[in-house]
Design brief:
The complex is a heterodimer of chains A (344) and B (508). Chain A has 344 residues and is mainly alpha-helical. In chain A, 67% of the residues lie in helices and 3% in strands. Chain A contains 14 helices and 2 strands. In chain A, strands 1-2 form a two-stranded antiparallel sheet. Chain A is globular, with a radius of gyration of 22 Å. The relative contact order of chain A is 0.19. The N terminus and C terminus of chain A are likely disordered. Chain B has 2 domains: 239 residues, P-loop containing nucleotide triphosphate hydrolases (Rossmann fold); 239 residues, 3-Layer(aba) Sandwich (Rossmann fold). In chain B, the strands form 5 sheets. A 6-stranded mixed beta sheet of chain B has the order 6-7-8-3-9-10, with helices on both faces. Classes of the chains: A mainly alpha (344), B alpha/beta (508). At the A-B interface, helix 8 and helix 9 of A face helix 11, strand 18 and helix 14 of B.
Amino acid sequence: MQTDTPKSVRPKRTLTEISIRYGFLALMAGLLIFFSVIAEGFASPYSAVFIFQSVAITGILALGVTATLVVDGFDLSIGSTATSALMLSAYVLVVLEMNAFVAVVACLVMGAAVGFINGILIVKFRVPDLLATLGMMFLLIGLQRIPTQGRSIATGMTLPDGRVAEGTFSKAFLSLGRYRFDFFIENLIPVSVIVLLVVGFLVWVFMELTRHGRLMYAIGSNSRAASLAGTNVNRYKILAYMISGVLASVGGILLAARLGRGDIASGNNLLLDSVAAALIGFAVLGAAKPNAFGTIIGALFIGILLQGLTMMNAPYYTQDFVKGAVLVVALVFTFALSKRGGAH
Amino acid sequence: MQNIAVELANITKAFGENTVLRGIDLELHAGQVTVLMGANGAGKSTLVKVLCGVHSANGGTIKLYGQAFSPTTPSEAIRAGVVTVHQSINDGVIPDLDVASNLMLDHLARPGSGFFLNKKKNFAEARKIAAAMALDVDVTQLVSELGLADRQLVAIARAMAHEPKLLILDEPTSSLSAVEAKRLFVLLDRLRASGVAILYISHRMSDIRRIADRIVSMRDGKISGVFEDAPLDYEGAVKAMLGHSMTNANIQIPQAGVTVMQLKNIVLREGAVPFSLDLHANEVVAITGLVGSGKTDLADILFGLSNPCAGEMILKGEAYAPRSQGKAIEAGVFLCPKDRASNAVIPDFDITKNITVPFVAQHSKFSFINFRSERKAAQRTISDLGIICQSDADDIASLSGGNQQKVMVGRWLAEDSDLLVLDEPFQGVDIKARRDIGEKIRNTALGRATAVMVSEMDEALEIADRIIVMNDQTVVGDHRNENIDLKLVLTQVVGQQNKTTGSTEYAN
């Protein structure tokens, strides 16, 4: 009987495989070089930090989307979870006049609860994921308006019962949005960027290095097989939605700290932008699957493109068009060119 | 003799290296019901797909009333008069439309049938079709409001609107009750009388006894027996389908060890006869029976996928009733499920990850995976089972079916178990891989109880120390695999003549 001893050498990669693997990163490098040459001031630390800052909140939400995509789910409620956290933190600080710590904890608990309810709707009541989270999205958009009768929250506003809200956004809370760490240059890196990098690293470690991440990928690929291998599929799915909910509320907290008021109208673009970043992430390194590293690269890619175009004086209303175009190109990379995506 | 409706000569079909049909010669006569029997993977469904235009044959010819017939699409086959009713009832009807629209669907889909819908005319036409088929339903009713049998009859009525020359029915009774099936048979009697050739695929002996004029058995992509003399030789047909010719089973039956699993008065489904069964350490037990005999139900209760209706299970002296698959695995009961594509393979994972899925916790510390230990385990499995691959990081999809199956079996051999249940481990596997897998299962059997669900007799004889026969959701035979009385085994597989004319087989 012929038993080949398995060798650990990977087969040689063909040109297509190389381009699928590194094509997107090469494109991004090309873009960086292009803007550095064309747009004056693009290649500076401040510009780099600005790009990171512009995508930090989107990126954090996108990491939550990634977690649900891994278990073959989808969370449409992240945008409204983030704005709910924004309103909740403002409510706790301004109306209830409590401190920053309480506000942050309340938001995180709310995010986890929203994720848990999403998960229960999906695994116990068998509502399809898109519909369950769509329902949750509407519910939250409505809910966050009820306590203040649809108005934004700021110090000095009149409450429904006639009182005047005396609370303020405390310094500690605002510093989450406004403090900058020194990094070679004084006051360079904002908190949100650090949070993005830390959360990104943690999600990456969880998904790639732990058995929980492994089993979540197994569920996403063939949930029946994962279940027959003894995996508690429902528990992991709920966990994924809870991760998504918590990360969305982290985004909301950072947004509230940056704005300094409970602005009812902000955060409209969060859902679409973060979904786009997570999907663009499929194309990075030819992964053809949701992954934390790719998601961050995807978010940065959009940030670089928009920053570069803005510095070249492209009008703001072209931004969504550019994002859409990037997303379509990335999806072609993932599904048409890669073997895994195309071999159906 | 009767006139020949369909004539197949030397039909061959291969998917890549996997040859599924190896030269089929078959005649189907007008006004006759030909039952086609064959175990899983014998090539029945491929043959049907060649006839109804889903696949085209690699070689050979088909003639339909003397005319050459080689459909390339299903609609071409239907136009030529070959109509198929598939196993899944809802494939044949559209539940959200009314009966009339369903019956007239092919007419509506035809180009040039008018832009606007004439409901009145539709209903009238549909009533005509229904009446011609003695179909007693209100044509304005939605199909989703009908019972399964009526849906099935609507699907067949729809097929009949094409005035078929050959009607193919793929396990049409698999979700029907006995009463519902009777109505179907009455309809088939009428069709037979009107001169349609009918090819009827089924595993149910009671159906076959009721409807067959002729039985054709298939095995390994070939016709292994044609039975047409009355009275039909049912046992012979089953024997031809299961086969037991080529195996020189050389089984050394070991000393049976302690009783690992005791099943006491288990009832698998409402109304089934209770049975008891002991599984011992060191022993490999093959559990055999036709499709629907209860093999898979038994595997399911052992692994906690469903609960028995009655009776108790005792694992190593303690009551055993796992609430989940995870609990079953913790208790030391492993199941390698059948149908690997939907139940076992994780398509996005490489070989290593596929092997370690159930036991990734064993390769982790504080939840962090030890990749080296994982790879070592995978490489051990690869060399133990002779899995042919370039490296342990190959995509699972790049492996052949046999090697994929080895990965799936190897997954459950990687850790020690008290009871290992393998449901159809040889499904869609070539003879070499089958031998490798069987050998590996036997060589590792010491110290654990092993139960292997198989439908082919060869496989049972090749692997088992003991062969259990199931029929009608219960155990009907228990044989030591030594000078075994094959005729008796086959009789038990087929079931008792007088008993199966009743309704017990329609337990669902």
